[in-house]
Each structure stands twice: as structure tokens, then as C-alpha cells.
Amino acid sequence: MGVTLAGIYDQVGDAWREPVNAPNGGYTQVSVDGVALSALESDVRSHRQTLHFREARFERETVFAVNGKTLTLKSERFLSARTPHLGVIRFSVGCDHAADVVIRTGIDANIWDLNGPHLREIAGDSRDGVLLVQGVTHEQRKRVLVAEVAAPAAGEGADGAVRSEEEIVQEGGRMLRVVMLRAEPGKTYTFEKYFAVFTDNDRTGVPLVKAAIETVQEARAAGYEGCRRAHHDAWAARWRRCDVKIDGDDEAQHALRYSILQLLMVAPVEGSANSIPARALSGQVYKGAVFWDTEMFMYPFFLHTYPEKAVELLRYRIRTLEGARRKARMEGPGYRGAFYAWESQETGDDACSYFNIGDPITGRELRTHFRDKQVHISGDVAIALWRYFEVTGDDTLLREGGAEVILECARFYYSYAHFKQDRGRYEILDVIGPDEYHERVNNNAFTNAVVRETFAIANAVVAHFERKHPAELKALLEKLAIADELPCFADAAERLYVPAPDEKTGVIEQFDGYWKLRDATVEELKAKMVHPNEYLGAGQGLAVPTKLIKQADVVMMLNLFGSRYSADVKKANWHYYEPRTEHGSSLSACAYAIVATECGELDAAYRYFLKTAKIDLEGKYKIYVGTTFIGGTHPAANGGAWMTAVFGFGGLRVEEDGIRIEPRLPENWRRLEFGLEHRGDRFRIRLAREAVEIAAAEENRNEHAFFVRGEKVRCAAGKRVLVEFAIDDPSVRSK
Amino acid sequence: MGVTLAGIYDQVGDAWREPVNAPNGGYTQVSVDGVALSALESDVRSHRQTLHFREARFERETVFAVNGKTLTLKSERFLSARTPHLGVIRFSVGCDHAADVVIRTGIDANIWDLNGPHLREIAGDSRDGVLLVQGVTHEQRKRVLVAEVAAPAAGEGADGAVRSEEEIVQEGGRMLRVVMLRAEPGKTYTFEKYFAVFTDNDRTGVPLVKAAIETVQEARAAGYEGCRRAHHDAWAARWRRCDVKIDGDDEAQHALRYSILQLLMVAPVEGSANSIPARALSGQVYKGAVFWDTEMFMYPFFLHTYPEKAVELLRYRIRTLEGARRKARMEGPGYRGAFYAWESQETGDDACSYFNIGDPITGRELRTHFRDKQVHISGDVAIALWRYFEVTGDDTLLREGGAEVILECARFYYSYAHFKQDRGRYEILDVIGPDEYHERVNNNAFTNAVVRETFAIANAVVAHFERKHPAELKALLEKLAIADELPCFADAAERLYVPAPDEKTGVIEQFDGYWKLRDATVEELKAKMVHPNEYLGAGQGLAVPTKLIKQADVVMMLNLFGSRYSADVKKANWHYYEPRTEHGSSLSACAYAIVATECGELDAAYRYFLKTAKIDLEGKYKIYVGTTFIGGTHPAANGGAWMTAVFGFGGLRVEEDGIRIEPRLPENWRRLEFGLEHRGDRFRIRLAREAVEIAAAEENRNEHAFFVRGEKVRCAAGKRVLVEFAIDDPSVRSK
Fold first, then answer.
1. Residue of chain A whose alpha carbon sits nearest to that of B534
2. Distant-in-sequence, close-in-space partners of B286: CB < 8 Å, separation ≥ 6
3. Hey, are the CB atoms on A430 and B442 less than 8 Å from each other?
């Protein structure tokens, strides 16, 4: 069991900086008649494991054969949704013959790290039966502390069989309690175990040791069932807000709920101002770094169902603004404002290296430009911040640093932009767009659109503050000494070039010169590979001189700025780029899925939806880029699955004047139901083939406008609105 | 013997377009007692070959042992400097025993080509004893025709020994005359042979066959000695103008004269409007293409000693303007004007491919940006054109297309440039400077300086025409529809950014971000090589992330714009960049040599001078870049040797108000003497350690101003001026 921590990072030597793994408070080792059991090495007769979506609880049952005896080991565990630092485990052992069983359970500090070990000065201790292990990180000397308590459960045979007093031992980096029992045939011996993890990042108000001991002692007092009930209730509340129900398609339902479960599990604890790394907390891969994945793929789910979590994601960016400023200055020359990190850790400095991919052919590190040229990241952050205000109507975040972030992002872009005198337009040169196989391109449509939007948002922020918070605006402009630059932002919002659809074909050129590249299929390039993990981009990769793209790029733009492009343009671009896309990123399929729903390609949309939603269930993704391992979970794809269901098939679009719903369900979906939070009020939306029902929560404060297939309806607190329609004849009834 | 033609190119299939080799009119095969002789395969007892610099005549003597007999074969040959199409050969054979000798001499159409064969429809013929072979190129069906005539020389034993009438045979792509003779011991049998090569490019006024036959028949009538005398006289006239004498250093003298000989041999025939390829006519390497090498390294020699040849080089660029316009349109988007080809052939279209270097590690073609990003080439052309006017005072070339070229080059640069609003300056982005190991850089100092100069020259051209040829200017501006753009050029000449010397160190950053690269030595990179020929540049080459540069770049700029930078700045940059330069190009050493003379580094200057001047004598240069063979002669280095002698050690600088001379001779040079042509008048300049003598030709039309070590003197026709100086006390006397 790896316990990868959120928001605490460490670097050892010259290796990559990465998140720290805590000592394993869930450690348990069972021996039977002197033989240690191992699911990997012992004679395992059966093994079953279950993840309960409803309450994020993991169960496992393994049957071992040892010396002619059959031993059954069961465990269930969860990380408490009610008590953030707490992990709860119940495990049991039973044998068909009498046997001597030794259980060694406690905390294991022998942690495997990609680039570790990260903890030193490891110290073990025990106080009043609570085991403690702590260590400090190399780089910043941050303390990581784990407390644990475990005991036989009340009930059948639990105590009687224990042959010795529990003994506490410290051995080889482990603090363990050793329990010996004589198991009687057919009886089950159950134990409960509680552990808590705290770090110096946790502002507990009391000493860490005290907080950790209290956490496990309180949990023990509540007992396993007590803890589980609280956990279950917390999850029930989450699901009430966030669940999406699909009638008629169990496969899609299962995959989508799995995706939502993942997102809810890794959502930052409220008040932490943490964000979600690209591989979530599934390990140390990708340096535990936060990418644009969060704002563009995960954030919409939270924004529309669970804005408290969206707030944390945004606060993380506000909190790391200084790192983004440092990065702009460092990447220069002449860059100003905020250039957010491509791979962001706790300070906002960039964890991405200039040589980020190993070449398996030469063994050399390849120069990539993810770090210095993938400039759309700043705009992605600005758009997410502004979108929060648009959707929630709440400008608190803007006032608490969001406006500053936006102005600094616009400032960065102005310092990055060039003006083309003979064409009377600003251009954004030398970037990488979403498609990372084509580095250092000019006028990437996606990037330019994001940059122009950032300037427009900066202007809108200033206008909003002028109206609502003039004094704060004045103070902010003075603090940033930016008043003189505002006319530049206005000019750039007006004159920044965004590649337009071709007049004849409607297709948008991904970047200057893309049309000139040669066509190539994935199969053709694969046939030329010298090494199976060879990277297709980075200057001389096989895809670089071709039209083959790694992931949705123009199509991602059509997705992000969906209301600005006609269905015809979407269709033209979808059909042009789809056969030219490798989907070498987990961010790609959902973009194609969503746009496909808008241009009548429902079968393709459904295919891409399943690909996105099942990515971690099926494990069909690249696990190596060059020499770099990139396996783990894919929370952006999880977010993409939700977006495809709700924005795509549901046709939900939240706009200034109301909420648009354009259902376009796959043929086998009888009904789609999802929760929506909008401007502090909540709804359940149910879509069927010929009707849409909107149910407003009793507690809602306002009536809201909806446009169902273009028909405007209003829905007040506690009301349900049903819009029924024959194919082209919607009729509206209120209940 | 390869006869690589100037100005005629062909492409076969998908292989590189390259110059055409003519059928070999010098073909001779000698057999003794039925055994064919070969310098490569026979038993060669001695072999001696001599190149006579004075008249560009090649001599060879080979002694063979065959069946116990010793046979001596001598030949001498030259390409007539008087009669452009004519080759003249005299060969003789002698044996120490009686022997049956068969001589097969004629024209061989079995030509080895890099990417051929280029001639098809090969046809042989003979008329009145003249052999003829012709063929047509694949691509453009251009005819290439060779005529030959050969006969025993008058004199001892020549005729008597001939046992049979000469027989003309056609066999396997050869037209041959077969001569059998019974050689008597100790006698020498001499033959004379004349061949002529014509192509459809030659505007002879008569049918090609007639022209060719007449050429060889006239030569035969004049006889070997007659032809040689004419050739010799033509060369004597060349040397009178162009020779550089070095007293006290035979090694330098020899290498420098060899360099000048090479330049004079490959100089375009007057009226041809041809230029000189990077490997001259030594073969088909580098596609027989003309690079910036010509304008920046070879042209100054001709401009200052033999302007008629300089005219041809410039006319070549005027003639290929349309190709440069096509290239601008093609490379787009939005490029206008003239973007000269990086590798230019007869049409001015670019022979450089986007994948110009093979990677020996993967066997793939590497994407290089020589073609699309090495934009300084247009400015190099514009500077050369304007320089011609500055030095000669003759604006004919400007009026005959030169002004149009310059305006179109400025127009191209304006369409390429971007304006940085927040810095109030134009920038030139995404280029390759002279240092090709760093592709796609921004604000390369050399390139930006060349571009700014081009705008300034465009403005100066307009001003000159306004004053002198207003009607022509009006017509030109109308033809180009460019009048509206002139204020843009003026603005760009004013506000284009050229990186300045660092205020503290005086060093100029080669391009944006160069300072951030890591330092590396050539040795360090070589130790990392996986393949000995692997290319160090092109995106992922070993030099790319380092400060190691291929060749002079900033130092080349200091050389080109020498009068704009102080000696201190030159010194600082020379010392900074010199240890960071691989000299992986033959263009590098001379730039370091010249600047070294200006900053007191005479020993280093001398070392680099010898390296440049001896490059083809020693053969110490790369012959492979990646998988591409790049061997051949190095006329740019030859030009660089002349520049180092005259501009460097001689300190010659031709400026608006007069000719500056600042001698700084290497210690072992007692005297340096060179010819100079200036504004149509000629001089011999003699520099000694403590005196400078300027001798004006009798025919000169004007008196000219000279500044010798800052002291102004004037020199009228037929006069000699001697400026003597003690170390710091020059005194001036006129004779």
C-alpha cells in the first residue's frame, strides 16, 4: 500500500522532485505455523478484491494453502471521508485446521520511492498503545508522522485465542505490534486498525503527535462500524450531488461512476488549497505535478457539482502565483507577469525539466519545450478563475487573489506576444499547443484563442471591479503598477489573431504551416519505429514532420469555445483531425467525444466516451514515453467522462442568460440524470429521449432560466419543470 | 577526370538535383603489349603531378613497369583561360624497350555521377576527324555536347612509328580514335588533344555542333604551344591584378597563391551571369549550389581585384530574383519580396531540402531548417550589391535589377519581422544564424544586423535613385507597387533590434537565451558521440543545448560590420567565442583570423590564416556531415585567406571618404604586396613593417585618398606614395 501525500514534495540529489510517500500505517503481515503469507509469493488458491463505489471502500479476500491447511485472509479498508487524516482497516484471519497464527501489524517506514528515499531521521515510538513513526524530508525538513492503533475486534473468538499479550517491537524501520494466537478450525479472528497521517503542512492547532494520537484514539473509540457509518454518510452526500445515472447501459454507468468516484476521492481537502496532480495520488509518476489537466478536464466537474472543491483547485493557483512570476522572469527575456508552471508542485515553480524525456535509442535526454513553450497554461488558469465567477456569480475568489492572477497572466501574454505590423495583428509565436508532437509552432489556434480570451477576461475583470469594487481595483492596479498596461490588453483582445475556419472547407489550421506537413497514419509511423517506446515528438520524432497529432488540439479549442463555432465548423474539423489524431494522451478522447455529440457523430462520441471512462478500468494506455514510466490513474480522463456525459450527451451549457440543455443521448441510453449546482442552487436534471425534467432543490434561493432545446423555462425552488417534445415540437408543462 | 559544368543542373528521380558532368573529352587509355595501364591498378614505379600556379596548368608523369619493360607516360593539360570552352592536353609515351603501344583516346560518356546518370540519348559521331558525343539531360532536355580532336605532335618519331591509320570506333558509350604504334626504345611519342564542351546554355550564335567543331579545329590549328601561350598570357594578366606577395614566409605565400589560383580558376566566365558554388566545380557535392559563401567570402576578393567577375556573381542573383520571389511565397505564410535560396542553382529555387542531413544513428533524414530559417542570405545579397556601388561608384548594376533585388529583400524582411510593442522594437525571430548548430533562434545578432543593414540599404538606394534616376525610381516603385512600404523600411532601419555588447563585459549575446546554455567543449561532445559522423545540430544534436557553436557568428558580424565596433568589443567577443567554436565549417577560421588581427592577437590570426589558406592543401576538413559526403574544394576559405591577408594583416578597409590601411603584419612577414582596384582605377599596395607604398597605375583616371595608419595621403595616376613611420610617428613623403 503506497500512501502518496498531497502537497508535500521532496528532492533527493539531482533526481526529479516528487511527492513524498508516508510510512505505511496499514502494514500487516500474517504468518501461519511460521510461514509468512504473501499474495505474490505464497500458494494462493483464490483472491478477490472489490471496490465499493458507493463508499470508496476496498475489500479483499485471499485464500492461502499452507502446509495442507487452508487459510482465509480478509480485509476491508477506507480513507475516511469524514476525518481527513484517518485510514481505517478491518482484517480477519481464519483457518480450516488449528494453526499458530502470528500477526505483525503496525507502521512500515521502508517505503519504495521512484527517486527516494525522501524521509530521513526515521524514529519510532509508542505511547499508550499507539505506535508512532516519523521522519523529515531531505530538502525542506518537513515532518511526516504516522500514528497507528490496532486491536482485536469485539466478538467471536477474538480474545480467547490470543496466546500472548500483544508485544510492541521496533525492527528494521517498522514499529510493530506482534500478536500470537492459536486459531481454532473454522473460527474467524478479526482485528481493527486505525492510522493517521499528519505532516508539517497540516495546521492542526496542536502538536502533530497529539493530533495524530487523538485521531486514532477517537477512531478506535468510535469503532470500525462507527467510522464506517460516518464515512458512508459523507459519501452518500457526495453522491447525492454528483452522481450521474444512466438507464439502459450498465457498462457506461459503471465506467462513469468509477470516474466520478476517482474524482471525488482525490479532490482536495477543503481549506488545503491543494490541487489534483495529473496522476492524482496514485503514485509519484509525473512528479506528482499539477498540469492543465486540472483546470481544463477535472475542474468543470467540480465547478458544476461541487464548487467547494473547485475553490480549492483555484486557490492552489492563487497560492502559487509567486512561483508563476518567478518562472516568467526566469524564462525571459523580457517576460513579465505570471507564466504558470507546466508541471506545478507546491510552490508553483516548474518541476518540468528542459530535458523531460529519455530517448530509448541513444539513451540521451531529449530537449522538449513543454516547460518553456506550452504557454497556454496561464490562460487555462485565467479562464478557470473567470468561469468560476460566471457560473457561481461569486466574486470572492477574484477579490482574494483571482483578479491579480488574471491580470498577471494577461501581462505575461502581452510580454510574450508580437505584433505583425504588415498584418495589423498580434501573434503568439513559438509555442506548443495541446498537441505536443509539434513543438515551437506559431499561431497555434488553441493557444491564440486562449490568449485572446485571457486579455478579454482581464478587461472584464477590470470592468467588474470598476463597477463593484473600485477601491480594491485601485489598490490592485497600484500594487501591480499595471494601470498603464490596461489599454494594451484591450488592444490585444481586439487584434490578437486567432486562425479562422477556412472559407471553403471550414477547417482551422492547427498552426502556421500545418497544412504543409505530410499526412501519415499511426500505423505508418509505428512501422518505422526503432524502439517500441520511442517518443514521436521532441524535434526529430517521427510525427514531427507529419500531420499526425498527439491529441485533440483544434478540436479542444472547439470544445473550450464551443458557443463561438457553428456545428458545420465543428463537423468539418472533427472529420479532418479525427483520423490524424493518435490519442497519445488521455486528454484526447473526451474532446473528440464531446464535439462528436455536437455534430451528429453519436456512435463515435459513444466510442470515445467509453474509451475515456474506462481508461483505468481497462488499462489501455501508454505506460512509457521514451524511457519514462507514466502509468497511474487518469483523473483528467475521469473528468472528461463526466463532461462527455453531461456537456456532450446531455448538451448542458451554462451561459450568461441561462442554462442550455440539448439532449442527444446514445441510442441505448433511456435516461440520463445528473446533479447540477448553479449560483449556489442545486438541481437534478433528468433527460429522456422525448423529455427533460428539471428538479430544483427545496433550499434554492432563486428561480433560474433554462433553455431546453431552445425553449426557455424557469424553475423556482422546490419545483420540477418537465419539457416534453416530439421530434421537432417541444411543448412545455410545469408541475 | 570529371568535367562538372557550371550553371547546368539536372534531377533524376527523387534524388538531389545536382550539376551535370559532361562526357569526358580528355579520355585516354594506353596499352602496352596488350596490357592496359592504370595509375590505380598497374605496377606504378613513380608518379609525380604538378600544378603550375602561374598558368593553371596540370602536369603528370607516371612510370609503369609492364612485362619487364619500363614505360613513361607524361601529360599536361589546362582549361584555356583565353577560350572558355576549350580543354588542351599534351601527352606522351616512351618505353625503354621496343613495345606495341595502343592509344585509345577520345570522349567517354560513361560518367559517374552522385545522383545520375544525367545524360540520356547519348549519341556519338565523327566529322572530319572530329569526334562528337552528345546527350540531353533528363529534366529539362538540355543538350551537352563534347567535341574532340587529337593527333600526334610534330617532331621526333611521332609519325614513323604509327603502325596503322588512326581508326575511329564507338564502343560502350565512348567515341575513340585508336592509334597503334611500335615504340622504339628510348623514343618519346607525343600527342596533342583538344576538346570543347558546349551546352544549350551557351548562346553561341551558331549551331552547337558547329561551334564545338570550330573551337577544337581552331585550337588544333594554333597547336599546343599556341594555345598554351594564349592561356599563359591570360593568366599573366590575372596575376598582375590579383597576386598577393608575401616576403619572408614561403609557406603562407604558397598557400595564399594556391587560394587565389582556385578563385580565379572558378570565377564565372564573363557574360555568363553564373556564380561560384560552395564546392566550386570540384564535383557534384552540395548539389553544385551557390550559398552565402559566395557573397560573404569569395566576392570581396573579386570586388577589390577583379570587379568584372564580381559583376557576374551579382548578376547571377539578379537573374535568379524570380526564384527568390517564388521561395518567399512558398515558405510563407505572408512572406513577400525575395527570400534567396539557401542552396541556389540556376533558377534561384531552393535546392536545399527540409531534411538535409541523414542521421547515421537511426538512418533517418533529419529535419534541418537551413532552407526555411537561414534568412540572412537575402541580406547578404543586398549588402554585396550595395557594396559594389560603394566600392566601384558604378550604379549600373543597381539600375539593371540590383535596386529591385534590394527592395525585394527589404520587403521580404519586413514581412518576416515582428514588432515588440512593449519594447518598441522590431525583432527577427525564428532563424538560423551562421552557427547552424542552433536552429530556430530569436534575435540572432548577425542576422538582425544584416536585416537592419538591408533596410538601411533599401533606403539609401531609394535616396540615390531619387537624386540620380527619379524616372527609373518611379517606374520601379510602380512595377513593384512598393511605394507605400518605403516608410516601413525607414522605420525598421531605425527600430530594428540588434543585440548590443553587454555593458560590463562587452560580449554580445549570439541570440536570445544563448547565455543560458551550458558550456561544453568539442572534446566533451565527441566523447558522447554514438557515431563518428553524427551531426551535432538539427534539433537534438549534442551541441544544441550547449554554448558550443559550429562557426563564427557574432565574430562574423564584427567582421562584416567592422567599423561599427570598437577594438575592445572585438577583443571581448573574440576571446569569449573563440574557445566555444568548433570551426565545423570552412567559413569559420578566416572570420576569427581577421578579427584577431584587429585585436592584437596576431599569433592566433596567423594560425587561423594558415588553417584557412591550406584547407585544400592539407585536406583537414570534415568529409561527412551525418550520412552526407561534403568533400571537395573550399573556395570560400580561399576567399577568406585573401581577406585575412589584405583586410586582416594589411588592414585594408575601403570606406566612403577613402581607403584605410592599417598594416599589422605577422612577425615573419617582411613585406606584403597586393593589387587593388578601386572605382575603376588600379593600385599596387606594398606594406612593410615601417612603411606603406601605394603605386597608382598609369591609366588611372582619378586621384584617390588613402589613410595610412590614420594619415591622409592622395595618390594620382602613375604616382607612388610612400608613407614611412616609426612606431608611433608616421611621416609622409611623396615621390
1. A362
2. B277, B278, B279, B343, B630, B632
3. yes
